Amino acid sequence: MVPDEPPLTAHELGEEAAALIDELSRISAEEDKLTRLYLTPEHRNAADLVARWMRQAGLDVREDSLGTVRGRLPSSMPAYGEKCLLIGSHIDTVIDAGKFDGALGVICAILAARELRKRGIDLPFDIDVLAFGDEEGVRFPTTLLSSSALAGTAPYSELDARDANGISVAEALREFGGRPENIQDLKEVPEKLVGYLEVHIEQGPVLEREALPVGIVTSLAGAERHWITVQGEAGHAGTVPMDARKDAVSAAADLIVSMETAAKSARSDGVVATVGELGIHPGAVNVIPAQVKMTLDLRAATDRPRAAAIDEIKARAARISRKRGCPIEFDQFHEVVTSPCSEIFQDAAKRAIASMGIRPFRLMSGAGHDGQAMKALTDIGMLFVRCRKGISHNPSEYVSIEDMGMAVEATVRWVAEIAQQEMKA
């Protein structure tokens, strides 16, 4: 292929990405904050806008049965076969969201695909840019439904999940223009795929500490979640001596500190433990608490240290239970295993980033992403983009124009490196 016009500089690409981010962020269910949930009118408007951008970038556009917008850049070298590289992220948000989470990855992919075409970079595979719709899992008690359908792991039962107004996923899909009955027909053929790439804001402070605009993700952390019940004994707050109490809150406090200690002791393995919900019963100012229910979210870079951490936490809980006379029970309700990123894609990203004069740096993802679902289908690769103070899921979420431009340029060069590898294979 021959380039049809000079490529944009990284700064120019960043300015363009910023303009698109701002335009997309104006599509919201609320005037004073960004809220765009799966299969809502706002999602419909956002999907239509993204489809228009894809067409303007020279991509062939369609929308699948679950609302994923897909833009294809055909291979310039069909003699190599009919393989496809998937690049994407999501356009749904949390409530009162930041405007870069998910959206930046979709915009980077669109601009990168356009630049690959404009620069005449030979591609021995098609590129499909994907704008998923259900990564955050806010409206319905589902998550990663759009990407799981492509991976072939989304069951029909998820279509029966209902939102707070009693509307099912299937009903919302039909209103959206989708076809829920086709959910199990969406699975991609693994043999026809090169892999799946995703660009995403880091949602953490590591790249900022390293003074780097982008980083190479090594794995998406495995995670598990538990309900923990601490059983005490209610009593009068004024008449029961301190050494005679079975105070569920005191036992829970000991346990929370122990969980933090256990996670910190395994710091090199990326273990993190969080108590995000806590309820006290009966919850009266003058009654010794009889029960505490709380959640534990436990994550790690690989599965073995996570398993070791939960064993350590349970051992500490048993000691606290004996000391306090308060039974402690764990009830696991969620688990997802670690999703390692392809070494081949990591190395290609390293070469791409180094060619820009940026120090290649690798880090893990403590958050889940669509790549976690796509891992069941094909090899995955991720690039993180620096975000100010690591703040995300918050209106203060921010990525500079310069870093957005670097992310687009890195994506172009990353895909070009993978193309070179495919032609040598």
Question: Layout of SSEs?
Answer:
Layout: H1 10-25, H2 41-56, E1 60-63, E2 69-73, E3 84-90, H3 103-118, E4 126-132, H4 145-151, H5 169-176, E5 193-201, H6 206-210, E6 214-220, E7 222-231, E8 235-236, H7 248-265, E9 272-274, E10 278-281, E11 287-288, E12 291-300, H8 303-324, E13 328-336, E14 339-340, H9 343-354, E15 362-365, H10 370-374, E16 380-385, H11 401-424
Parallel strand pairs: 3-4, 3-5, 5-16, 6-15
Antiparallel strand pairs: 1-2, 2-4, 6-14, 6-16, 7-12, 7-13, 8-11, 9-12, 10-12
Describe this protein's structure.
The chain has 425 residues and is α+β, with helices and mostly antiparallel strands. The chain folds into 2 domains: 297 residues, Aminopeptidase; 115 residues, Alpha-Beta Plaits, CATH 3.30.70.360. The two termini are 21 Å apart. The protein has 11 helices and 16 strands. 35% of the residues lie in helices and 21% in strands. The longest helix has 24 residues.
CATH topology of the largest domain: Aminopeptidase
Low-confidence spans: none
Radius of gyration: 24 Å
Arithmetic mean pLDDT: 95
- The count of domains is 2
Number of helices: 11
Helix content estimate: 25-40%
Question: What structural class results from the helix and strand content?
Answer: alpha+beta
Can you tell me the CATH superfamily of the largest domain?
Zn peptidases
Shape: globular
N to C succession of SSEs: HHEEEHEHHEHEEEHEEEEHEEHEHEH
CATH class of the largest domain: Alpha Beta
How many β-strand runs?
Answer: 16
Q: Indicate the proportion of strand residues.
A: 15-25%
Oligomer: single chain
Distance between the termini: 21 Å
Biggest sheet descriptor: 9 strands, mixed
CATH architecture verdict of the largest domain: 3-Layer(aba) Sandwich
